[in-house]
Automatic annotation (TrEMBL):
Molecular function terms, GO-annotated: hydrolase activity, acting on ester bonds
Protein name, as recorded: Lipase
Catalytic residues of the enzyme: 194 (nucleophile), 364 (charge relay system), 397 (charge relay system)
SUPFAM superfamilies attached to this UniProt entry: alpha/beta-Hydrolases (SSF53474)
InterPro entries registered for this protein in UniProt: AB_hydrolase_fold (IPR029058), AB_hydrolase_lipase (IPR006693), Lipase_euk (IPR025483)
Length: 421
């Protein structure tokens, strides 16, 4: 029984959360199709544990320079000691030096900078921005392939994985902002997808980073999560929280790991669970993603995250709040925060004059329309000329970054917004 619960939980969480969740699910579906009754060799590329530490240059080499663009590899150290990699595309294909401000692109969970480089140069936001004269900076949060170093910890140490998106907002994002600002001497535009929006909302609501910010584009915005329509997703969050101690013990959550694959396979054999529908159930039906490219993506993704990060997200799905990590008891919360419940991030505290471009999808099952409405209600006092909201009726979660028509549908209006600020 315990196995069943774990399986359900993990299956749903892998599938549920953000960008390359799709990839994870596809990996598993592929396996299930090949081997309907077997749980051996579950993944095309099972990750060893400890995970590999590939060359931090690999994104520049394999994703940017290959397309004919200049790419620089940079690194920055956070206040809590993580050494993070950034890639910079300083000029477009024309070779003309950027004449527009820097843009920092922040990926979502289970992903990294590859998010913005996945499609052709005409379709991928990072290349489009570079070709339009922006100085493009690609962030990679702690634990991803470019950002697995630390001043004193190794990814093999449990302590390395003791973080959730609280720390991404409090340490990683400020380190990126400061670094890009220092390097360029300019305020920056920001683009976040999914968890990359949550990190920004959390920071901005505490009046952080806004001094170095020109404007922010938030795609598939995630702040409130408890109107996620899928009952399975909600049930998964509950089950995951029910086994919090067990999962926290895993520290690093490796989506391509054997353990996760085995559990997924297990649950896909349960009656009543239709794994063929998982992608749609969890990310929504992505109208415009080029499926034939998914194998390219699999070579690089999905990336690890901290199990604690997933538990924090599950808390949001259960609670409907946007608050710091809940340690689950008064004593520990008081020790951490000086109060019995975790402090709330107040979305109404985002400075009203901060220019925000929000784009959300009518078919997105993670950034659900009703949850976005709750967020917009919190932003009702925002300066009207500083807030642009776009609803793309036929878009689901992944269309915002992988959609082959996102250049016209989302990125053109996004750049028009940047030009105003
Ligand atoms: C994780 O970090 C918190 C503080 O952020 C600390 O109180 C706690 O003891 C750490 N947990 C472990 C297992 O090291
Ligand atoms: C989809 O991807 C394949 C393989 O990379 C490519 O040949 C094709 O042109 C892509 N289609 C579109 C519409 O981008
Ligand atoms: C959130 O911030 C708004 C604006 O600063 C304030 O009016 C409101 O009382 C705050 N809400 C909470 C729960 O602190």
């Amino acid at each position: 029984m315990a196995d069943t619960i774990s399986s359900t939980a993990i299956l749903l969480l892998v599938a549920l959360v953000f960008i390359p969740a799709q990839t994870a699910a596809r990996t598993i579906l592929y396996t299930v199709d090949q081997n309907p009754n077997s749980i051996s060799s579950p993944s095309p590329s099972p990750s060893p544990s400890p995970s590999p530490s590939p060359s931090p240059n690999s994104i520049c080499e394999s994703m940017v320079e290959l397309q004919g663009y200049v790419c620089q590899q940079h690194q920055v150290t956070t206040k809590d000691g993580y050494i993070l990699g950034l890639q910079r595309i300083p000029v477009g294909r024309s070779g003309k030096t950027a004449d527009k401000p820097p843009v920092l692109l922040q990926h979502g969970i289970f992903s990294d900078a590859v998010t913005w480089l996945f499609n052709s140069p005409e379709e991928s936001l990072a290349f489009i921005l570079a070709d339009n004269g922006y100085d493009v900076w690609l962030a990679n949060t702690r634990g991803t392939i470019s950002s697995r170093r630390h001043q004193s910890l190794s990814p093999n140490d449990p302590d390395y994985w003791n973080w959730s998106w609280d720390e991404l907002a409090a340490y990683d994002l400020p380190a990126f902002f400061q670094y890009v600002h220092d390097q360029t001497g300019q305020k920056l535009h920001y683009v976040g997808h999914s968890l990359g929006t949550l990190m920004a909302f959390a920071a901005f609501s505490q009046d952080q980073l806004v001094n170095n910010l020109r404007s922010a584009a938030l795609l598939s915005p995630i702040a409130y999560l408890n109107r996620i329509p899928s009952l399975l997703t909600k049930a998964a969050a509950e089950l995951f929280l029910g086994e919090e101690i067990y999962w926290l013990g895993l520290h690093e959550f490796i989506p391509k790991g054997q353990q996760v694959a085995k559990l997924l396979e297990n649950i896909c054999n349960k009656p009543g669970i239709n794994c063929n529908n998982l992608l749609t159930v969890f990310t929504g039906s992505n109208c415009c993603v080029n499926n034939s490219k998914i194998n390219v993506f699999l070579d690089h993704e999905p990336q690890s995250t901290a199990t604690k990060n997933l538990i924090h997200l599950a808390q949001m799905i259960r609670g409907g709040t946007i608050a710091k990590f809940d340690y689950g008891n008064k004593e520990e919360n008081i020790k951490q925060y000086g109060q019995p419940t975790p402090p709330i991030y107040n979305m109404s505290s985002i400075p009203n004059e901060t220019p925000l471009f929000l784009s959300y999808g009518g078919k997105d099952q993670l950034s659900d329309v009703k949850d976005v409405q709750v967020l917009l209600e919190k932003l009702k006092d925002h300066d009207q000329d500083k807030l642009v909201v776009q609803l793309v009726e036929n878009y689901a979660h992944l269309d915002f970054v992988f959609g082959v028509n996102a250049n016209k549908v989302v990125y053109d209006p996004l750049m028009a917004f940047f030009r105003l600020h």
